[in-house]
Amino acid sequence: MQKDMLLGSEAIAEGVKLARPKIIPAYPITPQTHIIEVLSEMTANGELDATFIRVESELSAAAAAMGASQAGVRTFTATSSHGLALMHEVLHWIVGARLPVVLVNANRAIGSPWNIWTDQTDSMTQRDLGWLQVYCETAQEALDTILQAFYIAEKIQLPFMVMIDGFILSHTLEEVLIPSQDEADEFLPPYKPEYFLDTNNPMSFGAAAKGDIFYLLRKSIEETMEGSFDYIDEAHKRFEKIFKRRYGLIDTYLLDDAEIVFVVAGALVGTTKVAIDTLRKNNVKAGLLKIRYFRPFPKKEIVEALKGDKKVVVFNKAVSFGSSGQITQEIKEAFYYEDKKPVLYDYVLSLGGKEVFVENIVDLANNLDNLDKFKILWRE
Amino acid sequence: MIEIRFHGRGGQGAVIASKILAYAYFLDGKSSQAFPTFGAERRGAPVAAFVRADDKFINVRSPIANPDYVIVMAGKLAETVDVTSGIKENGLVIINSDKPASYYSFEEKCSIKTINVNEIALKHKLGSPIMPIINLPILGIFAKLSSSVSIESLKKAAPKFVPVKVEENIDALVEAYDLA
Fold first, then answer.
1. Which of A206, A286, B134, B159 suits A151 as a labelling partner, its CA being 20 to 30 A distant?
2. Is B38 in Cβ contact with A116 (below 8 Å)?
3. Which residues of A touch B37 (CB under 8 A)?
4. Domain of B80: which CATH number?
5. What stretches of chain A adopt beta strand conformation (E)?
6. β partners of residue A75
């Protein structure tokens, strides 16, 4: 393990290198481009023994990732925003084919109007696909999550999407512990799929399936998702043992005695922690629930964390128009059968990179009783 | 925590300067972060970059609204951009300029230090007369005036981000440090 200063995107590239993928098909898009730039350099100079495929679009990147993974090798790609949207069709296929592709999405708004800055619309609108989704708080978490993602995806044969906030994580230089290759190898064994495209043992994949079979296959995806918690838990324990860093489905900060809880996913977690420190100094009992896993959604852990007499402000960086913030929807659903429900505020805090400062969050907490819990809340 | 905001023009090296400074703090044993304003990386356009350093991991990730120090890489920017916006009381503004500090006046209560960093850069053949590359010498001045980062760490950090003209850059860094 070696400590260094890396951009979030460079930290991800280091994580990918340590995972030893064989194929990296990718197409550049801001703010993700640094990731694949570094990976293409690593493959060109022999540091990483993989084939980097320069494709002509994100749709092709996803298709090449699908093909590579179907051929039985560890496969990585990265994209953002419009790129992820363009991949959509193939992202479905990758799930149905049960291929453990790992994809990093640098969260960025989707036009119109044109906007390169961060929000989570791009990945939130892919939530129903059957890809696992994790949102990262720091560059360290992003690097670590890459290794965990391959491990879990390959165990359960479902693809894994790792999110970092564009620019706020991708372009920030910060300290990162880089695992050694030996440590990474100890954590992540080589990928050996049971079935794959093999000219010596010809098989057909993804051929037509009528309703009866198709239905069963879809049911098995859901069962795998529901059962994935055990594998995720095992991966976290294994990770902690080797790297001494602990991860969970969720994380909390000063939550136990909190009367006001902010629910946050992504890099905004850090700024919110500072706001909570400020509020605590002023005797406001604030706390935080970090959503790390959005798919599968850890209902049980979230209900446990938020139960009791709490006011819960859910920060969304995306909105399902005509409904509410997606994270709010999920939390409401999780509490449906609970007798005691927290008061929930459905807040759309930042879209298209609208900056959030500590004092915005502090002001919000101090003004909570004036807010309408029946509406989507927007900043002035 | 110490917070520094750089104002420069696209292509002038403000972002690189912020990375070198953050790395030097890291080498000094501090926690640090550096990030730019995003999206306006056009050559010549006003850009800002931010550095934070602290004794513990830095959680806050918003742009720096209340800097302890402001570093203005092109004097003209101090006349057109609100460079001292939100500066902490008795904060310091370092301006690369051939004009005296008294030439500048800001609403905020802060100290002003001007120094012709272009001259130092050109003396060491860094950049061209139209666009001198001043990131190392202006960091030398900052290091001396702030006493918050060691010149040794800046020397070590520099080649990581500026792999060309390493010797010239370090000479300019040291000369500026001694001059300030």
1. A206
2. yes
3. none
4. 3.40.920.10
5. 2-7, 23-26, 51-54, 76-79, 102-107, 132-135, 160-165, 173-178, 250-253, 260-264, 286-291, 293-295, 311-316, 343-348, 376-378
6. A23
Domain span at residue B41 reads: 2-179
pLDDT in tens, A38-74: 999 999 999 999 999 999 999 999 999 999 999 999 9
Query: Does the beta-carbon distance from B23 to A5 stay under 8 Å?
Result: yes
Q: What are B17-61's pLDDT values in tens digits?
A: 999 999 999 999 999 999 998 665 567 788 999 999 999 999 999
What average pLDDT does the structure give for chain A?
97
Looking at CA atoms only, how far is residue A177 from chain B in angstroms?
13
Chain A partners within 8 Å of B61 (Cβ): 168, 172, 267-268, 270-271
Q: Which domains does chain A have, with CATH numbers?
A: 2-243 (3.40.50.970), 250-378 (3.40.50.920)
Chain A residue numbers with beta carbons less than 8 Å from the beta carbon of B6 are none
Q: Are residues A107 and A80 in contact, defined by beta-carbon separation less than 8 angstroms?
A: yes
Q: Rounded to an integer, what is the distance from CA A367 to the centroid of its chain?
A: 31
List residues bridging with A263 in a β-sheet: A289, A314
Q: How many domains does chain B have?
A: 1
Q: Which residue in the set B38, B39, B60 is minimally distant from A271, CB to CB? A: B60
Residues in B closer than 8 angstroms to A349, CB to CB, are none
